[in-house]
Design brief:
Length: about 375
Amino acid sequence: PIYLDNNATTPMDPRVLEAMIPYFTQKFGNAASRNHPFGWAAEEGVDYAREQVAKLIGANEKEIIFTSGATEANNLALKGVFEMYKDKGNHIITCTTEHKAVLDACKHIEKLGAEVTYLQVKSDGLIDLQELENAITDKTILVAIMYGNNEIGVIQPIKEISAIAHKRGALFFTDATQAVGKIPVDVNADGIDLMSFSAHKMYGPKGVGALYVRRKNPRVKVTAQMDGGGHERGMRSGTLNVPGIVGFGKACELCQLEMAEESKRLSALRDKLESSLTTLEESYVNGNREYRLPHVANISFKYVEGEGLMMAMKDMAVSSGSACTSASLEPSYVLKSLGLSDDLAHSSIRFGLGRFTTEEEVDFAIEQTKKAVNHLRDLSPLWEM
Ligand code: PLP
């Protein structure tokens, strides 16, 4: 099958693999071994990667905390900020379309005394800034709103959100896992205090990511969630995943160099896919079409049964608006948040294009999807067009 699920994960760029290989075999040292050249070589690799990662987001390398991925970074941000600042206030604001790693970390700290407001989104997936303003209180310590959504690609008004948070003395955290490496993200221009992101969404290896933690204006601190040897400025203990971090660094460098061209190419392919598939009657693009990532298209095909659609599209690796939780098919909570019916959520497909997606693959996807939708509608008693 052709791979069009680049929001779930990306294949690793061969140039990333090449950078990593020496760190498995020759330069295998522990980056914390300060008394011999094996340790120094590993540390050098990590230092260089830290610069590459920091540069992509306009940060200082001292502000990068390496983690095992964005899930861990999200947990560290939410639990770590709550623990550090709970004497100042216990209120946190997030929204209903966040990734589970944010929502479930919020659920966790609620049990520890946090009060969390879950903002609804509008039918295009964007939050209402006035609602955010209204939700902030003197007890609000953190506003946590994602950069780009993983299901619909919608990009939230990050600068405006951070300005609102800061005006009221709250910190601003964003899960930028889907945005970093795809669109320009600058922690200073965007007013970001904490930000999570992950290598495997940007052609790097799985199992490595980072939390950006601001060090100036203001100096932000998080309570460690992993205690031990005091690595990563005490915020995340554990021997560093040196090859993974080196690969993450290389992936960031490549994104920085190629992002502008790549996003132009991918948005053109995405537009082609969308305009072809919306020639099908009763097909709807989900999410705001202006403020969104360049490589994602999420389309609902009314009167098409979701499971059948996935089955009919088995030559394509895509994602559907149905999440398989414990054998039952649950409609996507993100699409439900936009106000879609269960049926329309089930009948949606996420196409995630990527660096290695070709125009031929997109043409194939268009043809296969049209065929599947038409076929399933012919079988459907509800379809009488
Ligand atoms: N946040 C978002 C928005 C994501 O899309 C993902 C990926 O599934 C994650 C967090 C989790 O990232 P990781 O797989 O690195 O833990």
